[in-house]
Queue: 4 jobs
Job 1
Amino acid sequence: MSEGVKRRYDATRRRQQAGDNQRRVLRAACALFVERGYGRTTMADVAEAAGLAVETVYAGFKNKPTLLHRAWDVTVGGDDEDLLVHERPEFRAVLDEPDLATRLTAFAVANTAVMRRTAPLHLAVQGAAASDKAAAAMLAEIDRQRLEAMTVHARAAAATGRLAVSEVECRDLLWATTDGSLWNRLVHQRGWTDERYAERLGTLWISLLVA
């Protein structure tokens, strides 16, 4: 009596479905955090907006702080790749530019694109931080990550020999002008285009930082 050939289980489709569900959840969460505020958004709200069962949302993200953290990471990077911002190809290309003035101009353009994606969510986190411990912790983590990234840029700027200020001052100036507040005021509130903003930001950095 011959035995039937056992079919190998292929989990590819299941993994794809799980990935699609997570992306739907993250898109819904980002939109709701910005529109309603982090504190007023529940996991059930996110599930409803994503068109999924709330159990699916909890299975993928465990709790709302974890969902916020992942939503921020995806918003910053523009995709779900697990890479720090300064390690991404577009920012590696900025750091590889040998001329400091040209580098700062390119950095302003790249940073403006990040601000376009992140500023609304960053403002939502800021708004919730005063009354929500998870949001306050996320805000502190965002600032820490950005300071770490600006440390990399300042160190690279100092290595060119063209830096007009100390490496620490360069880091702090970059950090202070890349949190989204300036972009929000000039682009969102005053109607500047991203192109104008990037040009002026690059000019400001060059005037302050390049010897």
Job 2
Amino acid sequence: MRIDIWSDVVCPWCYIGKRRLEEALAASGEQAEIVWHSFQLDPSASNDDDRDLATRLGEKFGRDRAFGLQANEHVSTIATEVGLDFHLEDAKAANTVDAHRLLHLARELGQSGEVPADTQGRLKERLLKAYFTEGLPVGDHATLTRLAVETGLPADRVGAVLAGTTYTAQVETDQAQALAYGANGVPFFVIDEK
């Protein structure tokens, strides 16, 4: 079975959905090849936005910071049900295009055998934990480099990707494919092309 998943590394429902999928696979005994695809919730997001997440959420939905705080509390409670410990008060604003580009690198190197095949999944997990639990800036190149190297990607390849535009087209193609499937939110799962 192959499961293609469109998600963003700053989407709380994507992290919760990842855990729920892992639990379902473990309970069923099924084996699956999981392929992570890019979906940016906010392609215009800035890495330099110093507003806290509650304020950003409130403004995004035309509401106030109290709305954002309530939303964060709600999703954090649900996260605990699947063993996740969110610290959304520490979440840093991030444009996630570079994180997605590194996930494409991890997939390519895993397919070629240059790194273990599960490197893309391990990098996805590391990026989610960095954002939701550790409050790390997942749009920052130094942070991305450290996290990618921690998961086994070669530092020189990571540096080359971050210094240029490699995999930008793949990120855009993923986003377009999700929209073609009718996805208007994430996580979005396609199982064996259905």
Job 3
Amino acid sequence: MSIVLFVALVSGSASSGYRARFPDLPDCEAEGRDLGELLVNARAALTRGLDAMAGAGEAWPTPTPLEEIAAPPGVLAIPIDVSVDDPPIRVNISLGERLVQRLDAAAEARGMTRSGFIAQAVRVSLGERGPAAGEFDAANRRLQEELSALGRKITESIGPESPFSRRMADLDDKVYEGVRRAADSVSAAMSRRREAYRAATAQAEAGGETAPGAAEPHP
């Protein structure tokens, strides 16, 4: 196994996400919502690109040194390292059609090429975890950390003790208090009307007059 370094040109922002391209591998690109995700995807894209070239019998390009890369304004040049097998050789193997279909589906689900998946399967069979497994574990840990951080941010933003929740609680209290006061005002007005009606009725009966109105007002 050996380590190779290819320079990626990174552009974008935290709000729009990031994109990386490799000057030495024009067809190799990657994207990510943040720099951590971009790094994981860039490594995977670089590995796939090199595997595809090896599978096609093409020689890998010579990596351009970082100091020789001219990055445009606003673009960051970042070296991306990947672990690769020693110089690849072509091997002809025969597999059943259905097995090849399952192999390709499994490789695609893991973001790997067919040859890369076969090589990794061989390493596992030989008792080696290999760099792909280590990168997957590291990417999984980073993903879990990002999800945990996102959960904390959501809790801080809209959780029970967040400023948003406190503002909503204050608004609920104000609305409730306004409704209560309006109800009290209506109730008091109706009580005054009933008292006035009863007083007028008592006065009319005392003077032998007909009580005003046909009936006592309803609340």
Job 4
Amino acid sequence: MTPQYTLITPRLDATGPNNVAAELARAALDRGWQVRWLYLSHGPGRDDLAGLAEVRRFRLSDLWRLRGLVHTHCLRPDLLGGLLAGSSRRTVITTAHNNFLADLRHGYARWKVGLSWSLWRRAVARMDRRFSVSRASQRHYARLAPELHFDVAYNFRAPVAAAALPSPIATWLARQRAAGRTVLAYVGTLSTLKNVSAMLPSLAADPALALVLCGDGPLRATLEAAATELGDRVLLAGHVPQPGPMLEQVDALVLPSLTEGLPLVVVEALRAGCPSLLSNIAVHRELAALGAGLTFDHRRLTDFHAQLRALLARATPEHRAGLKRLWENRFSPAVGFAPIAALAR
């Protein structure tokens, strides 16, 4: 019998949890599963869901009709998953993409955080299986909710076809190379949690460094204003759907985040053979221990330049090839989807 796999997300867009869901959907399709994607509110959509049996908004009747493996992502779908759990007709699982309390405490009133945590904790306790995306995240939940057991299932990225660099980035990159500069790349949301503004003074202190910022968000205007002082050394490229070709060309990815679950962009950097300079948070230390790169003090940035020099010193062609092997062995679909696939046996 063909396994049925249903993904439930808050919206249908290109945010991080949905990018993970899309990889899961493709991996399930490759195994011959029947896959549907249900969402709770409308979004801009995606153009990479060919082959799915259904892509539509969740209906009330789905509470009774869903069969097989049901996989929820994020707060609202997880609350719904608590209602779906407990039926012999389906297995309900969730993936916690971040450290729940650490993320919600940035920008939300304390009472909202407390209420959300209480509801979420009760909902996921009813589910058949829970996954976190890193060992660090697993420890986070073991400490805060010891009654909940989370297994680890790393985020993964599938191989992609070779593609050309977007023209504005290619032109800018050529100018930086002509000037003899080291080129760093940031990929992600331009928000307070990502801590991007903290890097700019370190960049300003070394005229041999250049930075391309790929992404959009509430701090874009602020970053544009700050970047004017650095002239051509900073490029705000906006959203880049496929950062792989760029990561193959730059010297290093830099990610100064205050909190992360397991950043997909580091997986994309591994796939491209690009070393990563990462903020000194638990999940980044985990990735550094696996060989993805080095960490730096993202609060004071006292060791930013020293750690960058150390990272670049070891980024030989052989080392970059080793990063690609790390992706293949740890973060490719064959490995990443295995914990989910085991539930359909």
